[in-house]
Amino acid sequence: xxxxxxxxxxxxxxxxxxxxxxxxxxxxxxxxxxxxxxxxxxxxxxxxxxxxxxxxxxxxxxxxxxxxxxxxxxxxxxxxxxxxxxxxxxxxxxxxxxxxxxxxxxxxxxxxxxxxxxxxxxxxxxxxxxxxxxxxxxxxxxxxxxxxxxxxxxxxxxxxxxxxxxxxxxxxxxxxxxxxxxxxxxxxxxxxxxxxxxxxxxxxxxxxxxxxxxxxxxxxxxxxxxxxxxxxxxxxxxxxxxxxxxxxxxxxxxxxxxxxxxxxxxxxxxxxxxxxxxxxxxxxxxxxxxxxxxxxxxxxxxxxxxxxxxxxxxxxxxxxxxxxxxxxxxxxxxxxxxxxxxxxxxxxxxxxxxxxx
Length: 357
Fold this sequence. Notes:
CATH topology of the domain at 81-106 and 127-201: Elongation Factor Tu (Ef-tu), domain 3
Number of helices: 7
CATH class of the domain at 81-106 and 127-201: Mainly Beta
Low-confidence stretches: 109-122
Helix content: 55-70%
Shape: rod-shaped
Order of helices and strands: HHEEHEEEHEHHH
Number of strands: 6
């Protein structure tokens, strides 16, 4: 064997040692990455199981799975309807109650470095109610996360209808007659307002599990016991349909206003009658004064007539007495004359008899 063959064999042997080493390193690397991949596969399987469990079975705090939460959230949003927080009233017509309201701006778009979004991605869109949409307006209302007490829940200002849309502003009109007190709440009101597409639905599970202290801060004192005792000892709280209640109260208010107007009309009629009666009383008092003067004059004339009558009666009595005296004298004279005539006749008869003889 030549020297070059020996050198070649030596080089082949040395190269074989290198290939063996590389094969051993490759095998070790393959074993390491296979173990690592298995760990990741096990972690992925565990995470997948946990995700499936969270999606189907429920969260650790008993809120239900993600699917149920999504359904509940969709149900809640559907029942709640659209809501516009932070709306600002601008112009208000005190005669009709029409108000121009500027809607709240859309949510702030996250910055790319904060949210990982690329520039030019989808932007939040402002939701504008259509004309004819019925809106329920609350004053000083806050988002649910910021509600701490009853004052944060706001004051119900009324039911309105959208009659015009102009950009980010809508003009709303009261759907029911406004009372002077409600108009006073609207005039000069600077908000912010909350516009709700629907009134809240009263359900059995509303405020379920909420302690009395929290309910006392959020609810009127007259209804706290209803919610605290709901579901206890067979007690079932009576549910309220707020829209029906508002319509019913508005109807009752309209009837009471009509009755009040009728009472006012009758009161005005009575006041007019009283004024007429007072005028008539004054006229009768003037007439009574005049009649009193006439009565006084008539009484004076009557007294004078009575006195004159008495004088006449006295004079008549005197004259009747005189007449009786004259009659008596006349009878006496007549008797005397009769006696004289009888005597004269006898005397004549005697003289006649003497003459005959």
